[in-house]
Amino acid sequence: MSVKTERAARLLKGLRRLYPDAHCELDYKTPHELVFAVILSAQCTDVRVNATTRTLFKRYKTVDDYANANPAELEAIVRSCGFYRMKAKAIIETAKAIRDEHGGKVPDTMEKLLALRGVARKTANVVLGEIYGKPEGVVVDTHMKRLAYRFGLTDEEDPVKVERDLASIVPRKDWVFWSHSVIWHGRRVCKAQNPQCASCPLRADCPQRGVDSD
Question: What pLDDT is stored for residue 56 in this prediction?
C-alpha cells in the first residue's frame, strides 16, 4: 500500500468520525431539480443556489416546464448565481434533451449525462452518487481540489486528473461519502483563506501543503 493510500485511509476514518451524516447540501426534491441546481452551482456557493432555487422550483415544476421556459424569465431568476445567460441556456437545453431523448427521466449513466449541455463530470458524479447510488467517480469542486493538494494526495491542477488520482487511492465504495465529507471539511474547517489547521482533527494526517502551520 502506498503512502498516499495509507494517508487517504486514515483521513477517511477521520472524516467518518467528523461528518457521519455528510450529504449534498443543495436543496432538491426531484432528480431534474438536482441537475439544474448543480448546473447553477458552478462558481457559486450552495447557499446562493439554494436561495435561488426556492424561487426557481416554485415557478417551474416539470422537465417540460423548463424545456418550454422563456429564456429572459429564467435568466432573471438565476441571475444572482452568475453567468446567468449561459446557465439558463444550459438548463433549458438540458431539459429538452431529458424530455426528448430520455423520456423525461434523468439519465443514469456517465456517458448519457455528459452528453447533456452544462453537465460536466462534477455534475454527473453528484447525480449518479446522490440519485442513483452509483459511485462512478469523485466529485471535484474547488474545495476538493484544494484539500486534495493540502492532504498531499495529488499534485495535479486539472479536475479530471485530480479525480483520477483520488480514485486510485480511495476505495470505490467510499467515493460518494469521500466527496461529500471532504467538501464539508473544506467549507467548515479547511477554508481557502485562514484554514483552521491548529484545531483541525485531521491535522496529524495532513501535510498542510500550501498553508502556514500554526
Answer: 98
Nearest in space to 11 (alpha carbons), one of 188, 127, 150, 129: 150
Q: For the chain, what is the mean pLDDT?
A: 95
Whether the model clears a pTM of 0.85, i.e. scores above it, the answer is yes
Among candidate residues 122, 155, 165, 212, the one labeled active-site is 122
Q: Which three cell numbers stand for residue 202?
A: 485531521
- Residue pair 182/15 in contact by the 8 Å Cβ criterion: yes
Q: Are 129 and 136 in contact (CB under 8 A)?
A: yes
Q: Rounded to the nearest 5°, which phi and psi values hold at 40?
A: -70, -25
Distance CA 155, CA 52 (A): 35
Rg of the chain over all Cα atoms, to the nearest angstrom: 18
The verdict on whether 122 is a catalytic residue reads: yes
**What local confidence, expressed as pLDDT, does residue 212 receive?**
64
Query: How many other CB atoms are there within 10 angstroms of residue 116's CB atom?
Result: 24
Catalytic residue among 4, 13, 105, 141: 141
Rounded CA gap, 104 and 213, in Å?
51
